[in-house]
Input
Amino acid sequence: MADVVVYGFPVSSYVNIIRLILTHKNVAFHFHDLEPEMGSAGHRALHPFERVPILDHGGFRVYETTAIALYVDEVFADPSLQPAEPRLRARMNQWISSVNSYFYPYLTYHLGHERLIYPALGIPADEKVVAHALPRIALALDVLERELEHGGDHLVGDQLTLADFFLLPTMTGLGLIPEGQAMLGSKPRIANWRARMEALPSAMQVRAAVAPHFGKPVEHARRWVDTHRPHY
Ligand SMILES: N[C@@H](CCC(=O)N[C@@H](CS)C(=O)NCC(=O)O)C(=O)O
Output
């Protein structure tokens, strides 16, 4: 058994944030595909809210992506993915919170589920959910484009931080959806940022592991129609 285990299902954006960070830090880990066990008693023993990812480091278990990312960055020091300067660290945390609050819910939970996850299961998209998400995604992309205009190569100036890895899987997912491609077409700075991020060896390694799962049914997501889907 590896010293570090990441539990999750392969196409999960949050799981892939952690895979990216560990890979970038050259930390060897075992990926435990939890898909067949999602929602089981075994899953609840790992995560009482039945989400992923969960990290196990030598018997120490922690869930919630932000907690895992900060732990990994502190325990596996090189390269550090947090700025030393407090104001820059505040910016990084502002971005992480923005991904959690304003990007992931609309790009992934709304649009991604309706356009990618449900169709792969033969479940028709709910266009009301899509219509609710699109203006909110447009706003998020406008903010991102504007911030990149004033900064450097990354979300926090020129330093690659945890924030870039938080955003990447959500943006990769958006790029798989026609509406997303159309919106991204008018955002050159986001395109440059994505190209830089996707060219990182760590990003290429994780993408190679995840890409075969794109478009495949995520079986446990059938339940989301009743448990997760918003009603507008
Ligand atoms: N607040 C959690 C959110 C994690 C989350 O929502 N993960 C999704 C996958 S990206 C999940 O577990 N979905 C499974 C489900 O809801 O059944 C975190 O930061 O880790």
Q: What stands out?
A: Residues 15 and 206 are 11 Å apart (CA to CA).
